[in-house]
Amino acid sequence: MARQGQTEMAVLGALSMQPMTAYALREAIRDVLGHFWSESFGQIYPTLGTLEQRGHVRRREGSRPGSSIFVITDSGAARLRELLSEPIKAVPPRNGLLLRLFFGRNLGAEKCRELIREAKADAERRLAEYDTLARAVAVQDRGSPDLPYTMMTVSAGRHGAEAVIAWAAEALALLDGAPEEPGAPEEPGDTLTNGEPQ
């Protein structure tokens, strides 16, 4: 799915939960979807305009003079279902931490330990945030038909953070006995390409 389609999905999805101003929409995407989906603020406003031109959202007068509240229309709900039904496009992984650890012999064990400890601390922070979010959602959305869907995404975040914490303990144990100083580069004949010695 193209980037524009995914932005439309985020915007329409947020509006399907409740009508809101453009500012509230931006905040909702950042604070709620932001736990698992990153969306550029520079894309949200133009996307709202495009969706309005196509009749997928409409404006109504807000409580303050000059403010507008965006409401999803029937065609917008149909467009959202269409977008949600499209196949998920796999994204090639780009993990800066694992890239550094893969070549960690050049950093040395202690620097690698620092990176792993930072990743563990970040995962512990995220786990605490997910726990707080789960409690808040359980209260705020009690009785809402969206509750099981929201909770399963929060649960996925919790499991991801827990997995990083468990991995960090295992990774730190693997570094026991590794050379503390960065290692010298290997001779060209010692490197492997496609599993075969050069």
UniProtKB/TrEMBL annotation:
<dbReference type="InterPro" id="IPR018309">
    <property type="entry name" value="Tscrpt_reg_PadR_C"/>
</dbReference>
<feature type="domain" description="Transcription regulator PadR N-terminal">
    <location>
        <begin position="11"/>
        <end position="82"/>
    </location>
</feature>
<feature type="region of interest" description="Disordered">
    <location>
        <begin position="176"/>
        <end position="198"/>
    </location>
</feature>
<protein>
    <submittedName>
        <fullName>PadR family transcriptional regulator</fullName>
    </submittedName>
</protein>
<dbReference type="InterPro" id="IPR036390">
    <property type="entry name" value="WH_DNA-bd_sf"/>
</dbReference>
<dbReference type="InterPro" id="IPR005149">
    <property type="entry name" value="Tscrpt_reg_PadR_N"/>
</dbReference>
<dbReference type="Pfam" id="PF10400">
    <property type="entry name" value="Vir_act_alpha_C"/>
</dbReference>
<dbReference type="Pfam" id="PF03551">
    <property type="entry name" value="PadR"/>
</dbReference>
<dbReference type="InterPro" id="IPR036388">
    <property type="entry name" value="WH-like_DNA-bd_sf"/>
</dbReference>
<feature type="domain" description="Transcription regulator PadR C-terminal">
    <location>
        <begin position="94"/>
        <end position="176"/>
    </location>
</feature>
